[in-house]
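User: Hey, quick favor. My workstation is busy. Could you predict this chain's structure for me?
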Amino acid sequence: MKVESWPTAHVVEGRPQELPDAVVIEEPLEIWIGGAPFTVAMRTPGEDLELAAGLLYAEGIVDEPADLVALEAAGDTENRVLARLRPGLALDPRRAGRSLASSSACGVCGKTEIDAIFARGFPLLEARRPTVSAALLESLPERMRAAQPVFAKTGGLHAAALFAADGELALLREDVGRHNAVDKLVGACFLAGRLPLRDWLLVLSGRAGFEIIQKAARAGVPIVAAVGSPSSLSLRTAERVGMTLVGFLRRGRFNIYTSGDRIAL
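Assistant: No problem, here it is.
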């Protein structure tokens, strides 16, 4: 369940009316590795195993599905995921560099060194692959919105959507946190053995912050298009890995910030 009903006073033209309102559920998810707590993520319940897998991949804890011997929900609670790494793959705290708690707004706060992110290695992005037209790019936010059932009820969820170069929607995940939605999407691809995502576009319902761009780069995504704005650090990260980063995407307009040769104007 991702939505609950809350008694609400709806005020229209100064007149209140008591009606239930659909609100997004936000709860903590504990992620444990090898019997010890690793992090706590504030998220919308659902796709929790994907969220955990995507976060562990983004953090450089695992590189391929075989690195996870087990990934399962704890039997005693709905808000804990247990991960077990393959023998010989130890959790290096310096590699993880994450504090125990992360919020649904920003997961990068626990990072100790930005350079440590690049030290993990990103898949090489091929120039001019894939290439998409401006018209197709402008159509993607509407296609994404049409596939957001929980957002339609609440208006309170972010989405991350994976599109093929021809505009076909391959996968979409929603969450109260922007980076959680990306983790869920990348985690689903990771568990299915579909990484790196060399021929796909990632479309975001909000802004393109640094952590989202580093997650996309780690997954090998060549084009990221956001409805909102990028940050200066996300632009430097995209430029460094050769990613095409588009912001303020909507019908009739968008901004190209980096590697514009993948967009056919």
